[in-house]
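Quick one from the shared queue. A colleague (R.T.) flagged Isoprenyl transferase as missing a structural entry in our internal table.

Convert sequence to structure tokens.
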Amino acid sequence: MFKGLFQNTKNNSTKIVNIEDLNPFNIPKHVAIIMDGNGRWAKGKGLPRIAGHRAGMEAIKRVAKAANKVGVEIVTLFAFSTENWKRPENEVNFLMGLPQEFLLKEIDELNEQNVQVKIMGFDENLPEHTIKAVREAERRTEKNTGLILNFALNYGSRHEIVHATKSIVHDVLEGKITEQQIDERLLGQYLLTKNYPDPDLLIRTSGELRLSNFLLWQMAYTELYFTSAFWPEFNEQHFIEAIYDYQQRGRRFGAI
Ligand code: FPP
């Protein structure tokens, strides 16, 4: 049983939220997550930053379980951005080793939970061992039919849109498509998310209130949810609260 205090952002009332409070007919299909605050969590405990990233992997396991339980179909996690290369070399190297450490260690449990692991991002600059580990995890879970756990790795939204634009120009010049065919739907087909619906809900942890170049095109109508919890603290209860908050929103997609 999940229990926690839910602060209604509209009228400031508080309510205890548990999983039974969720409307099973209004579960977000696709939840995107910016896993932020690993470094600050570690610092607060007097630990090196990489201890925060390691603790963050436990949070990924908790969220995958919770998402499966409530019926979310896709969780897209911002694991490494095209801007994260600016971090100190030792931290980048550590982050590049995490897919091996996490995916290969957890693969049996992920398979037991029927989870499909997917990787979304640009292979350029990624070390060979990282690419190998993620491809192997994809291969070993490709027959599963449950939650899609989609890791955005070396991903940046502007880079993705530039890449899509170049591919469209290329295909027009090659005569594969015409200029008249270019519309929002077609552009979406050139993005890395072409197989997924747009996120219904974005969760960002650690109290930061920005999108940081994550899924900018795809999140035009996504509901945004920010929590002050650091990512390594994030648990099933936080996830349930985010979904409950989402269910209080009226989504109009520009209509009245
Ligand atoms: C942000 O916290 C977190 C990251 C940049 C990396 C998140 C990655 C993981 C939790 C693991 C990914 C796992 C796999 C399998 C790919 P921060 O370091 O920016 O924290 P800070 O803002 O407090 O410094």
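The helical segments are 38-44, 49-70, 89-112, 128-141, 157-173, 184-189, 236-247.
The radius of gyration is 19 Å.
Added to the table.
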